Amino acid sequence: MKFNVDDCDIVELPIAHTEKGNMTVLENKLNIPFNIRRIYYLYDVPMNAERGGHSHYELQQYVVAASGSFTFVLDDGTNKKEVFLNHPNKALHIKPGIWREMKDFSSGSICLVLASMEYTEDDYIRDYEQFLNYRKNG
């Protein structure tokens, strides 16, 4: 199945409010539609730097602005969509086959990524022309 940028939604994550602060809990197959196989986070990204610049054949991700803010540019080969993340109780669900770029990192931002697969270079499309060919021809 080929997904498009409109299939990549912002998901409201649950918040447990207490007098001592807030907590958000994410659990496999409960409030995340895939099993988390890898977790990583980006931080100390210079304000003018851009990250990403790739797509995945199979990998799904939940991306959370654990601190600060940044913008995702999503591209399905036909349409583009910008998504601004700036709150730790909202996740961007990125589906397979979507090109992603990240920009506009605020100072002190932390980008938390929950991934459906362990790292494998074979799942990456790092060349944009190859990505467009994949989207067109499968």
From TrEMBL:
The lineage of its organism: Bacteria, Pseudomonadati, Bacteroidota, Flavobacteriia, Flavobacteriales. This is WxcM-like, C-terminal. Gene3D superfamilies: Jelly Rolls. Residues 7-135 form the Sugar 3,4-ketoisomerase QdtA cupin domain. Pfam families: FdtA (PF05523). InterPro entries: QdtA_cupin_dom (IPR008894), RmlC-like_jellyroll (IPR014710), RmlC_Cupin_sf (IPR011051). Transmembrane segments: none annotated.
